Amino acid sequence: MKRPAALALALATVAAGATALTMPAQARATTRTFSAPIHVDTAAANQTGEPSITVAPDGTEYIVAPDGPGVRTPAALGASGTGGSLVWRSDDRGHSWTLLGSYDVPTGGGDSDIAVAPNGTLYASGLSYAACSTIGVSTDKGQTWLDDPLAGCAKLPVLNDREWTATYGNNVVNTAIGDSAEGNIEFIRSAVNSPIVVPSPTLELYKGGDYQWPGTLDVDQRNGTSYVVWNTAGAPNNCDQSSGADSCKPTDASTQTPDKIYVSVVPDGATSAPTPTLVANRKFDTFDSFVSDAVDKAGNIYVVWSERHPAQQQTWTMLSVSRIGGHTWSAPVKVERTPATTVFPWVTAGDAGRIAISYYGTSAHGNSPQKLPSSAPWSVYSSFSTDYGRTFSEYRTTGTMQKGPICTSGTGCATGSRNLLDFFETAADPQGCLVTAYADNSANGNAAIVSYVRQKSGPGLRVASNCR
Q: Which of 14, 33, 89, 263 could be 457's S-S partner, Cβ–Cβ 3.0 to 4.6 Å?
């Protein structure tokens, strides 16, 4: 999946209509504010999109992003070369970043993700250009990497799509993978025999051949249960086309067969795939982005997705919550307040009931994010909740980072229209402050720059402390 100037930060106040939240006493006098955006790497050879971010327990921050086929040497050898899955590290709370080269030598550079264990070990998964999934392991803060084959590397046809990775304690790393060749969603639990990861047999979580995007996974750190999410293709599907087999009126999308949001609840050490649980049944098109999920420290699960509402000429970010282990789910609610159109939602959870949902948002209206005028201005927004998603405070955390449509049809997009790629991510630092890695395409519209913004004051995702 594939793809300037410091921005003036426009901090939004709580959107009109949002309900004031009840906060800890020390938070009531403090407003959430955010740093000026920082360009992580402006080198022309390193311009790319869909960055993933994680924060180690010691506060060290890491960002990875795919940069196409090629070879980068690791940091210990100078980080030279082109292409590959890139990794950057910050040791000073995001103020400066160091390129550590590529972690998936020699054939990587496809889809990328990164997770960190409590002991600081890094697990960076990647998609090689043989279309199989690998995982790189680093025990020295990304200076050197050992790459292990994970899935699909010895079978034909090989066509892995997107993999996501999450850790459980120091000894388990879990990966969810979309298998485009077979139309399945797969799950692999790997035991850590440092620095080698030893994968268990693959569990086929979904064999319907009907998923639109292989969604993310998160792990309940209390018991190792993994939650893997995705959406199906309703009928008609993806009504952005004006002709051909996929052509349909935007208002008809998913009206014959609703889209479904599913979760697979996978206990630690499971040897058989569980039956997927229905999160939501939607007569709206959910085509526009990956489904994202997060588990808070009390075991509550949050699922977010993007949903087109052509009657309103808007695309909404939706949330559903489970407070009993993913077995039943709340009615979906709309998250955003200020933007008319949103895309690429991502959720990060902290202490019980505390979440931040982030998305690209614009005031422009259209049938979908990729059917907007060339003047449509986009920014990063983050909505915070301290009451399990019942109410939100919404903030605009960057200035304009994109103008015009945002392509949401993956590799089916026109050449040059997909510089942001397909998602962006947030995470929380040890104090619960939200950090965001995103793609800034505002300079010339031809290449995105991996960028970063940090919450610097106000209540975060931990109850006991404010951000500073």
A: 33
Q: Which pTM was predicted?
A: 0.91
Cis peptide before 157 (omega within 30 of 0): yes
The Cβ-side half-sphere exposure at 320, using a 13 Å CA radius, reads: 24
Tokens of 317: 């970010």
For residues 65 and 202, membership in a common domain is answered with yes
**Residues of the domain holding 128:** 50-209
Tell me the C-alpha to C-alpha distance, in Å, between residue 37 and each of 8, 34, 211, 367.
Answer: 8, 9, 35, 30
With 90 as the cut, is the pLDDT of residue 63 above it? Answer: yes
Q: How many CA atoms lie less than 13 Å away from 204 in the CB half-sphere? A: 10
Tell me the one-letter amino acid at 58.
D
Residue 434 lies in a domain: no
If asked whether residues 201 and 309 sit together in one domain, one would say no
Q: Which of 106, 152, 128, 126 is nearest to 52 (CA)?
A: 126
Q: What would the pLDDT profile of 171-183 be if each residue is shown by its tens digit?
A: 999 999 988 777 8
Only one residue has tokens 């979580």, namely 205
Residue bearing tokens 């085509």 = 287
Determine the average pLDDT of the residues in 132-157.
81
Residue 447 lies in a domain: no
The helix or strand, by DSSP H or E, that contains position 124, with its residue range, turns out to be strand 122-127
Domain membership of residue 115 (yes or no) is: yes
Q: How many independent structural domains does the chain possess?
A: 2
Same domain, 7 and 80: no
Contact 465, 354 (CB under 8 A): no
> Measuring CA to CA, which residue among 153, 154, 200, 210 is closest to residue 180?
210
Nearest to 167 by CA among 79, 232, 226: 226
Report the alpha-carbon distance of residue 461 to residue 465 in Å, rounded.
9
Sign of CA pseudo-dihedral 408, 409, 413, 416: positive
Which residues have C-beta within 8 Å of that of residue 362, sequence separation ≥ 6? 339, 340, 341, 342, 372, 376, 377, 378, 379
Q: How buried is 434 (Cβ within 10 angstroms: 0-12 exposed, 13-18 middle, 19+ buried)?
A: buried
**395 plus 413 within the same structural domain:** yes
Phi then psi dihedrals of residue 44, to 5 deg: -60, -35
